[in-house]
Design brief:
single chain; eight-stranded antiparallel β-barrel; 19 strands; 461 residues; alpha+beta
Length: 461
């Protein structure tokens, strides 16, 4: 149950119901279920179905397809955090003999390893996994279609390889590791590799007639880490909350944030669409907001998980049809409806617990050349640097404990900020990755690269 403060307004709930009702009717889906997450918990669940009587609820399983990849990516990140591998390691170091060993683990996670999109024929989604018992059967004779690391090319075999990597390092099956390290700790008890009642059946809907055909249900075998899982809107709502805040039982907030960070060079079409890929997560811009998550599909099923971290709103949408409703658009709309109708209420402003005079001295207005910047000391102990007017380079910076600071994002990510002090101990200027920031534009008392004209500022003569 939710408290009154957490419940959605009736008008919001009706708008959500209307959106999924339109999606189910126009997309001709046998059933469609959805949940909305806010503040780390599910606050709304809706369902539409063509079957008379009780419709599916948040405990009914649907196949979630490639959302499985995000689970596999979490397992790999756990190995990294435990020091058992590095994301920059070539695959060959841990899993030799695949034919794709020059690709790094990070490139596999981001679909930039140059691998094919699919395994060799026959189509793996509608045939038994027993046809592909070995990695060589999944990868084929020539695994690489593109230069490693040069382009984003979505690859299902790539995540099969990552699943095999997990098995090799852990010494246990992907399914066992998944259950022990993610499903049980997060309480995802209705997520499984095989369907568990109650679950939806998968259907193909005729494109030119209101008629249906049951889709075959295949065990994907080796391909399981790329798309095997069944889950519910209830479980995926909890998983969405984890992908926002992390959980120290599974993966830290910092590592989850790393997964949400773009890691792949975008294709030209992706740039136009505002889409890219992180480490096991799709990233896209819709309706002016950044959404992370993943879509999924297998014959008979569609799935989507969309999260706006800034709005603290997520949506899960599942349907049991091969094609029809565009669940990515539906998920984005559910997020937008809540975010716009009931904007996130910010936490109360609170001052710093302690004020360090040496840090406070850095605050205020600075100039890089003639560009005016403001430097603020924030309550979380960071520095925030940004232009005072218009767009420009901005970043937050973390203290290194020795008087220097490291940029966390944007152009200055990883760059060192060093306050340069005068003989009397006061700060003369800031050096940020060789950029000199002064209290006045081109301050002649500071070490300006190239020097300052001794005649100073002037008008037209």
């Amino acid at each position: 149950m939710t408290t009154p403060q957490e419940e959605l307004l009736p008008t919001t709930r009706r708008a959500l119901l209307h959106r999924i009702a339109v999606a189910q009717a126009e997309g001709r889906a046998p059933s469609l279920v959805a949940s909305v997450v806010r503040g780390g918990r599910a606050v709304w669940h809706g369902t539409r179905t063509s079957v008379d009587g009780h419709g599916p609820d948040e405990t009914v399983q649907y196949r979630i397809g490639s959302i499985t990849k995000t689970f596999t990516a979490v397992l790999v990140m756990r190995l990294r955090d435990e020091g058992l591998l590095d994301l920059g390691d070539p695959l060959e170091k841990h899993l030799p003999g695949t034919g794709a060993g020059e690709a790094t683990i990070a490139e596999l996670l981001a679909h930039t390893a140059g691998l094919a999109a699919e395994s060799p024929a026959p189509w793996w989604e509608r045939t038994p996994g027993t046809l592909r018992p070995e990695l060589s059967d999944v990868l084929g004779e020539h695994p690489l279609l593109h230069p490693v690391g040069r382009r984003h090319h979505y690859s299902n075999p790539g995540y099969t390889v990552l699943g095999a990597l997990v098995e090799e390092v852990r010494g246990a099956s992907w399914e066992e590791v998944l259950r022990d390290e993610i499903l049980d700790p997060l309480g995802l008890h209705r997520t499984s590799t095989q369907p568990q009642a109650p679950h939806a059946g998968g259907w193909a809907v005729h494109p030119w007639a209101d008629a249906m055909l049951p889709e075959p249900l295949e065990d994907l075998g080796r391909m399981a880490p790329a798309g095997q899982l069944w889950s519910t809107t209830g479980d995926l709502a909890r998983f969405a909350a984890f992908l926002v805040a992390g959980d120290d039982q599974v993966l830290s907030a910092e590592s989850v944030r790393e997964m949400r960070t773009p890691a792949a060079p975008a294709e030209a079409a992706d740039v136009l669409d505002g889409a890219t890929y992180g480490l096991g997560l799709q990233i896209q811009r819709r309706d002016g907001r950044l959404l992370v998550g993943h879509s999924g599909s297998l014959p008979g099923f569609l799935a989507n998980l969309s999260i706006s971290v800034d709005d603290d709103v997520a949506a899960v949408v599942l349907a049991n049809c091969t094609s029809g409703p565009l669940l990515g658009a539906v998920g984005a709309d559910l997020v937008r409806i809540v975010a716009e109708a009931e904007p996130r209420i910010p936490e109360p402003w609170r001052p710093l617990r302690e004020v360090d005079p040496a840090v406070l001295e850095l605050a205020g207005q600075w100039y890089w050349g003639t560009n005016a910047f403001g430097l603020r000391v924030t309550a979380d102990g960071l520095l925030a640097l940004g232009p005072l007017t218009g767009a420009g380079r901005r970043t937050r910076l973390r203290s290194n404990g020795d008087g220097t600071w490291t940029g966390l994002e944007g152009y200055f990510a990883g760059e060192l900020l060093r306050p340069v002090r005068r003989p009397d101990g006061t700060v003369g200027h800031l050096d940020l990755g060789s950029f000199v920031f002064t209290r006045q534009p081109y301050d002649p008392a500071s070490a300006i690269p190239g020097g300052v004209d001794p005649e100073g500022w002037r008008g037209i003569r």
